[in-house]
Design goal:
Helix content is about 65%, strand content about 0%. By secondary structure, it is mainly alpha-helical.
Length: about 60
C-alpha cells in the first residue's frame, strides 16, 4: 500500500523550460521591488517639490 515511486528523470528540454519559467518569476519579483523603490523615491523627494517648490529647502518642507 505504501509504495514509494521514484520521480521520473526530467529531459534536458523540460529542465530548461522549468529554469526559464523560474527565471521569469525571479525577474518579475525584481521588477516589483524596483518599481516600489522608484515609487518611494518619487513620493519622498518629488512630491514635496511639486507641492511647494519655493519653500522646500527654506523651512524644511
Amino acid at each position: 500500500m505504501d509504495e514509494i515511486f521514484a520521480e521520473p528523470l526530467l529531459s534536458a528540454a523540460e529542465r530548461k523550460n522549468r529554469a526559464k519559467r523560474f527565471d521569469e518569476g525571479v525577474k518579475l519579483v525584481a521588477t516589483v521591488f524596483d518599481n516600489t523603490a522608484l515609487l518611494t523615491v518619487g513620493t519622498t523627494f518629488i512630491s514635496p517639490l511639486v507641492q511647494h517648490p519655493a519653500d522646500v529647502f527654506v523651512n524644511s518642507g
